[in-house]
């Protein structure tokens, strides 16, 4: 019984947190516009606050809160300032992370920039329509769920034991398969191009790497969760790390080639 409870001990928390996030996320995605942007701004600020706390030196005082406020202001400015170069503001929080005393300065800087890019990308995707954003979220969720169950049922060799000891190759591959099936579903029912079937596992892999990067930061900081902002379920980074990686890759690929995004 103890082995079973150990293997599935976090299932209830994962299911409950997933249900809450799906409900809130669904309403906000449906509303779009300012309500959705406000949610993304709040999430981005919370993630930067967590990152600054985990990588900061002792006695940093209000620095994490100041960096969170800077992140919110920078993202808002990049979205709404009437300038062709407003997107450069996205780098401001990362620069601040690089210039303030902290451990793991490089990874904090890169991850901080990724957070701002992800926030910006989410709002831009929603402005293009709901379908593309729903696809992206569905890919991340399907990859996470299938990876979780396959990893615990099938087990096997670890994917990257030094950083994320629970992740297995079986779970990782199952996540890719789940993402491909999501892509196929959007091809069949949403009229997306067949390239989406190949793009979806790549986006899922980016999400998995976002999760692993956050796990590495937490291990270096000696903490189990990024914070306790979500009672019983850890921090905001713990829930949005995979989505961060996925959105950044979609943005990067979209800059160099046309993507077969559904509904666009």
UniProtKB/TrEMBL annotation:
Enzyme Commission numbers on file: 2.7.7.41
Superkingdom of the organism of origin: Bacteria
Pfam family, one: CTP_transf_1
GO molecular function, one term: phosphatidate cytidylyltransferase activity
Keywords of the record: Cell membrane, Lipid biosynthesis, Lipid metabolism, Membrane, Nucleotidyltransferase, Phospholipid biosynthesis, Phospholipid metabolism, Transferase, Transmembrane, Transmembrane helix
Catalysed reaction equations from the record: a 1,2-diacyl-sn-glycero-3-phosphate + CTP + H(+) = a CDP-1,2-diacyl-sn-glycerol + diphosphate
InterPro entries xref list: PC_trans
Membrane-traversing stretches: 20-49, 61-81, 107-123, 130-154, 174-199, 242-261
PROSITE patterns: CDS (PS01315)
Major site of localization recorded for this protein: membrane
Membrane topology: Multi-pass membrane protein
Pathway per the UniProt entry: Lipid metabolism; Phospholipid metabolism; CDP-diacylglycerol biosynthesis; CDP-diacylglycerol from sn-glycerol 3-phosphate: step 3/3
Localization per record: Cell membrane
Signal peptide: none
Enzyme category, top tier: transferase
UniProt similarity note: Belongs to the CDS family.
Name of the featured protein: Phosphatidate cytidylyltransferase
Species of the source: Ruixingdingia sedimenti
Upper lineage: Bacteria, Pseudomonadati, Pseudomonadota, Alphaproteobacteria, Rhodobacterales
């Amino acid at each position: 019984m103890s082995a079973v409870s150990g293997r599935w001990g976090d299932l209830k928390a994962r299911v409950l947190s997933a249900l809450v996030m799906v409900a809130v996320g669904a309403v906000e995605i449906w509303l779009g516009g300012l309500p959705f942007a406000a949610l993304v701004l709040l999430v981005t600020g919370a993630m930067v606050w967590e990152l600054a706390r985990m990588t900061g030196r002792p006695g940093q005082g209000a620095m994490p809160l100041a960096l969170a406020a800077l992140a919110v202001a920078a993202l808002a400015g990049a979205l709404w300032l009437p300038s062709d170069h407003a997107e450069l503001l996205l780098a401001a929080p990362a620069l601040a992370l690089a210039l303030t005393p902290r451990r793991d300065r490089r990874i904090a800087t890169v991850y901080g920039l990724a957070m701002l890019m992800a926030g910006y990308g989410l709002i831009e995707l929603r402005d293009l329509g709901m379908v593309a954003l729903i696809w992206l979220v569905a890919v991340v969720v399907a990859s996470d769920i299938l990876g979780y169950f396959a990893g615990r049922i099938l087990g096997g060799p670890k994917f990257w034991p030094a950083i994320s000891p629970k992740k297995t190759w079986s779970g990782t591959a199952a996540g890719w398969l789940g993402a491909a099936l999501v892509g196929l579903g959007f091809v069949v029912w949403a009229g997306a191009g067949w390239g989406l079937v190949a793009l979806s596992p790549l986006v899922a892999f980016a999400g998995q790497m976002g999760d692993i990067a956050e796990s590495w930061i937490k291990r270096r900081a000696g903490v189990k969760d990024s914070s306790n902002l979500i009672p019983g379920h850890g921090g905001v980074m713990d829930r949005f790390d995979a989505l961060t990686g996925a959105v950044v890759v979609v943005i990067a690929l979209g800059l160099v080639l046309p993507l077969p995004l559904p509904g666009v």
